[in-house]
Design goal:
The protein is of the alpha/beta class. It has one domain: NAD(P)-binding Rossmann-like Domain (Rossmann fold, 3-Layer(aba) Sandwich). 49% of the residues lie in helices and 15% in strands. The chain has nine helices and seven strands, in the order βαβαβαβαβααβαααβ. A seven-stranded parallel β-sheet has the order 3-2-1-4-5-6-7, sandwiched between helices. α4 links the parallel β4 (86-89) and β5 (135-140). The longest helix is centred in the middle third of the chain and has 29 residues, at 104-132. It is globular, with a radius of gyration of 17 Å. The N and C termini lie far apart (34 Å). The relative contact order is 0.14.
Amino acid sequence: MKFEGKTALVTGGSRGIGRAICLELAEGGANVVLCYAGNEAAAQETVQAVEALGAKALAVHCDVSDAAGVDGLVKAAVETFGRIDILVNNAGITRDNLLMRMSEADFDQVVAANLKGAFLCMKAVSKLMLKQRYGRIVNLSSVVALRGNAGQVNYAASKAGIIGMTKSLAKELASRGVTVNAVAPGFIETDMTAALPEAARTAAQGSIPMNRLGGPEDVAKAAAFLAGDGAAYITGQVLAVDGGMSM
């Protein structure tokens, strides 16, 4: 039980990769606080799945791009479990389109949810971790931050920004026992990729040396590794979980 006695805060934890991360951490003994933006039923299903593993869980509705909402999320986590040891910034959205057709609103919404949201959560939680002189922050970036993708200028920009923030904050917090790393998933079987046309899925799979899409559990295990004591001397790094796609 490598996370026994620890509390993890996972944003966007109701479905897909976020849910898999919640379950992976819970299986290791962590209490889990997950936030969700809209699907309360899915969030409660994740809570029940965490509790079935013998861990405690709390679901909180939160828009991570809103500072007051993030402060309320962190307050709820601390009031319930006393501390936050692990932060996983997983919440994110897409608004895909070619640049010439992309609206300013679509750009702003993606950057607000994906990049500003991670910034606000790290700012709020890092204060606690500094006092504890312990913490693990894991940010979800993407393979598109490393190689780009047509039709995702906004998403790629937000996920590339995640990498820059990860490396910068890692330098700020390293001396106080707090590590900050990123995971960059490739094409993963989620609701988001399930909505892709079959031709796009086939083309994506063909670009992966392992010739298959990954599963949410593949990303969850990488995030759990970076959140664990076995990664205590690793900070400011980006771990690609993409079947070799970004090579």
